[in-house]
């Protein structure tokens, strides 16, 4: 509902005086006009919405594939932008990374169920592509999932979720957390959202075991 209010404020001068349909995949939002009990914020929204001639229409997510594709642009961009020559680089890197070489041998000999080879590429559980440690490929993928306009300099968890959905390499969690924690732009511009911890207070001495 916050997104709907924001859009109506931005496009207010286009929408006033005309009837339009607001389509949403949130079924609770579609009942907003007939809701009896309102919070103070919702009451302010109702007051603002009274200017418009509109209908809220529920549309399930499976029938809303175009909007869903747009809302997942971060994941699409992070996978498609880097993947231009990435498979070729990964194939080449598998021959230079000592750990990857051993894993390829194990997969070829059928000694592991967690890894398998397809078209010269190494895959692991969840059909995630194994990325060898070679030519800063790890850093390139993290940079694509964090620094780009699509990604929007997300925090550690959201940045880690993007490469984890399609790729795998050892110590991925530590690599992502270190990159985000030490990224200069985020350190300069982002505001800490936690209150200061304050001074340490000594615990009272116990009088019995």
UniProtKB/TrEMBL annotation:
Domain of life of the source: Eukaryota
Give GO terms: molecular function aspect only.
endonuclease activity; hydrolase activity; RNA-directed DNA polymerase activity
Is Aminoacyl-tRNA synthetase there in the keyword field?
Answer: no
* Domain named Integrase zinc-binding: residues: 136-191
Task: Specify the Reverse transcriptase RNase H-like domain's residue ranges.
Answer: 2-52
- Pfam families, sorted: Integrase_H2C2, RT_RNaseH
Which InterPro entries does the annotation name?
A: DNA/RNA_pol_sf, Integrase_H2C2, Retrovirus_Pol_polyprotein, RT_RNaseH
Which keywords does UniProt give here? Endonuclease, Hydrolase, Nuclease, Nucleotidyltransferase, RNA-directed DNA polymerase, Transferase
Q: Which PANTHER family match?
A: PROTEIN CBG26694, PROTEIN NYNRIN-LIKE
What is the designated name of this protein? Reverse transcriptase RNase H-like domain-containing protein
Question: What organism does the record attribute this protein to?
Answer: Dorcoceras hygrometricum
